[in-house]
TrEMBL record:
Regions of compositional bias (Basic residues) in chain numbering: 239-253
Keyword ATP-binding: no
Protein name as annotated: Nucleotidyltransferase domain-containing protein
Native organism: Bradyrhizobium yuanmingense
Pfam families: SMODS
Length: 270
């Protein structure tokens, strides 16, 4: 079995199941609808909401335990909580949390002081990041730590960058991202996990179960089908002229070589 067949078999084993995808979509729509009802006066299940993180970048793998959602709030809400007495960022997270609690039970604390956390019985956790969209398409989101502040991120740009690079590598970049997530738990005292720019090596103790020892390496030039840069005709001509313009190099023979040559010719050696 060749490299391509090995990778295809491994890829099929780490794909998220259709049942989990359906469950994620159902929960995502319920959360989005409730937030839209309270903040935008609409019952849309998709507007103002975006999958972010690994699921949004399409690099999540089977065994997904947390899912990130970004929800865009009206700019008027930003001004309301930016002028809030005390920690306005914490108050904003409390308002988003209160809205979600009409649909799902949430955790008491905020994840990293920036997201509202929803833990489900199947060990999948949703983290909702409330944000405000800027004219540059970046987001401003609340950070409730240390008295409160605003931070910026740009998940749309991250998603676009992954999509672009993955298209140039026959979609294998996303496959590789999922593969690395599956292999991450293999790290340990008797294990070595190495990732490189164009390939991955996964080494595991031989006592490990056979099914987890799946592959060794995928080399970039062979596997990723990276585009090869070719020189233009003027560039090739310029390089040819440069080579022709160089003065001929005289070969200098060492004394030892001269002595050997003299012996071969039968000349007396001085």
């Amino acid at each position: 079995m060749g490299v391509g067949e090995d990778f295809q078999k491994f890829k099929n084993n780490y794909q998220i199941t259709t049942e989990q995808i359906a469950s994620i979509s159902y929960r995502y729509k319920r959360i989005t609808r409730q937030l839209n009802t309270d903040f935008w006066n609409t019952n849309s299940e998709t507007a103002h909401s975006l999958y972010v993180g690994s699921y949004g970048r399409d690099t999540a793998a089977k065994g997904l335990s947390d899912l990130d959602i970004g929800f865009i709030l009206p700019n008027t809400v930003y001004h309301q909580y930016n002028n809030h007495q005390g920690n306005g960022q914490s108050a904003l997270l409390q308002a988003v949390k209160k809205s979600i609690q009409k649909t799902y039970r949430t955790s008491e604390s905020f994840g990293d002081g920036q997201v509202v956390v929803i833990s489900f019985d199947d060990n999948v956790t949703f983290e909702v990041l409330p944000a405000f969209e800027n004219s540059s398409n970046s987001w401003t989101f609340p950070n409730a730590n240390n008295g409160g502040s605003w931070k910026d991120c740009n998940p749309r740009a991250e998603i676009a960058a992954i999509d672009t690079r993955s298209a140039l590598t026959n979609k294998n970049l996303k496959y590789l991202g999922r593969m690395m997530r599956v292999c991450a738990p293999l790290r340990g005292p008797n294990q070595r996990h190495v990732d490189r720019h164009v390939g991955v090596s996964v080494h595991r103790d031989l006592s490990a179960p056979r099914q987890v020892v799946l592959l060794s390496r995928f080399h970039g030039a062979r596997f990723f089908r990276l585009p090869v840069k070719t020189r233009s005709e003027p560039d090739r001509l310029a390089r040819a002229r440069q080579r022709l313009s160089r003065p001929p190099q005289r070969r200098v023979r060492t004394q030892g070589a001269q002595r050997i040559s003299a012996r071969e010719r039968g000349d007396p050696v001085q």
